[in-house]
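Input structure tokens:
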């Protein structure tokens, strides 16, 4: 049985070759491993000081040499004693070092760490709350500078502090309500005397503000899946290249050049857009092209927004009928995804680049109208850089779910508060439920199976 009390070891640096590779250990007592791997003089390791050392195998031969860092409990990342061995960053060297640690630590039950186990222990030992622990993974996975800054704010506890402040305000108001319930004979309008309605309104306003910032953070974390579709040769690949700022997709006058999807992440105002170029949609007997078209429709079903490209320079009855058929099928396959009609190649017409509602006229070749498209995509994502770009928290879906649930409980609390002293019990209960949902964010009320799902997505060594 795997236990959270077992000492653990793992390579803490990314796979592959590098100048430095780190092997990390955590546990209650690492002395046997330290003495065996670093030699009998290793007991003199000074806490939190880099010590040059030779890393030895079972025969006393040198595996490598490098730096040893000891962090005694509880002043470490995990809250347990942590040892970090910084060696040369070759995969073979690190595997040998991990194997040696496991051999030396067999008597104390040393085992390989599971994904995210070091951070899980930091959470279990109250070094981090759950929102901060998740921010560790989000910081590692951040795909834009804005996402990294938001993850850093969450890791520093900014998100958690705001959640705690709201929770404390709820507890204080609930305490007043329940104190009143203990003296039912008092003919006092409690809600008026304590300004409970005003306090409740203030809490709801603070929560609404936090939801807006968390929603912005969710956009930063997840990005937007943008799928480009249309008939062959309407300029889908050219638009992908224009958005990415480099030649990623092959562009030729030959219809059907793109036969499979091409995905590229594009950053717009700090927001990651996952742009997917797809095969041109048409009737074909070519087996490879048909497979590409089926994959196009599969991507449409997963899209957050669909860009339906049409050729603004070749508008005839046949082209319009084919485009209408494509749009109808998009509505059928992805009924909830916003669809923008992009009239490309305006440089070959007398039409100006412009945006009107869900229609945009542009030239992927010259770049005219691209800014209007970017602005529209950010609006669909719900991003407001001026309002909250520098203050967003890198929120996850479970955070938003908990925040929305707390809002629903507070909405119900308002209804009970409007009934005066007659429904104070129900008011207190809704305040309690709202507080519990907020506490789920930081892990004060969290099921073990949820913890397992969260930390299993971390990289090994973190």
């Amino acid at each position: 049985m795997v236990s959270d009390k077992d000492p653990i070891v793992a390579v803490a640096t990314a796979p592959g070759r590098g100048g430095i590779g780190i092997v990390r250990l955590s546990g209650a007592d690492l002395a046997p491993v330290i003495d065996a791997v670093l030699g009998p003089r290793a007991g003199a390791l000074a806490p939190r000081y880099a010590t040059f050392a030779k890393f030895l195998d079972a025969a006393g031969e040198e595996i490598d040499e490098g730096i040893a860092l000891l962090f005694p409990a509880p002043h470490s990342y995990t809250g347990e004693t942590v040892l970090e061995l910084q060696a040369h960053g070759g995969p073979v060297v690190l595997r040998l070092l991990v194997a040696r640690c496991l051999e030396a630590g067999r008597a104390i039950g040393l085992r390989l760490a599971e994904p995210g186990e070091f951070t899980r222990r930091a959470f279990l030992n109250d070094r981090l709350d759950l929102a901060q622990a998740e921010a560790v993974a989000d910081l590692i996975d951040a795909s834009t500078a804005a996402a990294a800054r938001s993850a850093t704010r969450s890791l520093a506890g900014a998100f958690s502090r705001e959640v705690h402040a709201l929770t404390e305000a709820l507890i204080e108001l609930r305490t007043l309500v329940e104190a009143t319930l203990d003296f039912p004979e008092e003919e006092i309008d409690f809600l008026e005397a304590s300004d409970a309605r005003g306090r409740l309104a203030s809490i709801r306003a603070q929560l609404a503000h936090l939801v807006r910032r968390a929603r912005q953070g969710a956009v930063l974390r997840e990005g937007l899946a943008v799928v480009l579709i249309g008939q062959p040769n309407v300029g889908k690949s050219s638009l992908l290249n224009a958005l990415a700022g480099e030649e990623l997709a092959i562009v030729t006058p030959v219809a059907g050049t793109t036969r499979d999807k091409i995905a590229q992440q594009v950053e717009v105002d700090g927001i990651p857009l996952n742009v997917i170029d797809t095969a041109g949609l048409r009737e074909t007997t070519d087996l490879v092209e048909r497979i590409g078209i089926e994959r196009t429709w599969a991507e449409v079903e997963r899209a957050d927004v669909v860009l339906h490209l049409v050729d603004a320079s070749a508008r005839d009855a046949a082209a319009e009928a084919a485009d209408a058929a494509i749009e109808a099928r998009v509505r059928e396959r992805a009924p909830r995804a916003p669809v923008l009609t992009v009239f490309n190649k305006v440089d070959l017409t007398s039409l100006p680049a412009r945006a009107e509602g869900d229609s945009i006229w542009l030239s992927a070749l010259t770049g005219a109208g691209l800014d209007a498209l970017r602005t529209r995509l950010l609006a669909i994502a719900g991003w407001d850089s001026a309002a909250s770009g520098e203050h967003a928290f890198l929120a996850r879906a479970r955070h938003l779910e908990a925040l929305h649930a707390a809002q629903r409980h507070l909405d119900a609390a308002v209804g009970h508060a409007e009934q005066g002293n007659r429904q104070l019990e129900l008011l207190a209960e809704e305040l309690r439920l709202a507080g519990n949902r907020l506490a789920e964010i930081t892990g004060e009320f969290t099921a073990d199976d949820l913890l397992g799902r969260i930390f299993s997505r971390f990289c090994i060594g973190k």
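Residues 249-260 have pLDDT under 50 and may be disordered. Residues 196-222 form the longest helix (27 residues).
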